[in-house]
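Long-time lurker. I teach an intro course on protein structure, and each term I like to show students one example going from raw sequence to a predicted 3D structure in token notation. This year I'd like something fresh instead of my usual example. Would anyone be willing to generate the tokens for the chain below so I can use it in lecture? Attribution to the forum is fine with me.
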Amino acid sequence: METLRTRFDIARKISVDVSPVAMEFFRKELDITSKSDESPVTIADQNTETAIRTAIAASFPEESILGEEFGQSGDRSDMWIVDPIDGTRSFITGLPLFGILLGYLSDDVPQLGVVNMPALGEVYSGAQGLGAYLNGAQISVSACKTLKRARLFINEADKLAQEAPQQFVRMITAGDLRRFGADCYPHMLVASGYADAVIDFGLQPYDYLPVAAVVEAAGGIMTDWHGRPLSLTSDGRTVTAATPELHAELLELVRP
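-- Reply from a regular --
Happy to contribute to a lecture. Here you go:
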């Protein structure tokens, strides 16, 4: 039985080792296709996930994997979670704010996560009981306790405006400072103390589970909009906060 520390070290190494696979295609002309949900996919997504799956299988040959591009292999309660390029729209428009996400789930609870931002040279990682790190240096969330003083990111604003208009009207006047964002990077800014909160929408398990592991290892909180822990069956609406007090205010903000 591998220890969590061993899994953590291997996961970080895999994430770094596959970076060149993704970067080979960054800011290059690409053929872009659409999946059934109309989200874009490129050869960079597919090749990166293949490389990650191959590396996981080499170290943990009996363990299951859930990935964005190639679905689930195996049916065990313990599994690896893979998003080869979180932020494909950023990737294909040359924006360097895309991440390679890798996580490990046991009994539906995130145990570890790695968020590698290869175009930025930043690797965030975190695991239960082991802390959170940016390029090997320990990181932690801010001490912000009130929404009034919070540096707030609102992710997927276009979707929120259409599908949760009441809440969106409140969001765009909340906080001390607001930025619109997308994908994993705003959550990592919370984990490292540069931002205080993120509201997100329309996510899949491979989007939020690796990210949640890093945020929580850094001392933060990431739940669904009802305050429930994130799992494979969560509905994809999330809030990330630096402190319990701020988290409680965010839940009120997103309440219908």
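Some talking points for your students: The two ends are 45 Å apart (CA to CA). The chain has a mean pLDDT of 94.
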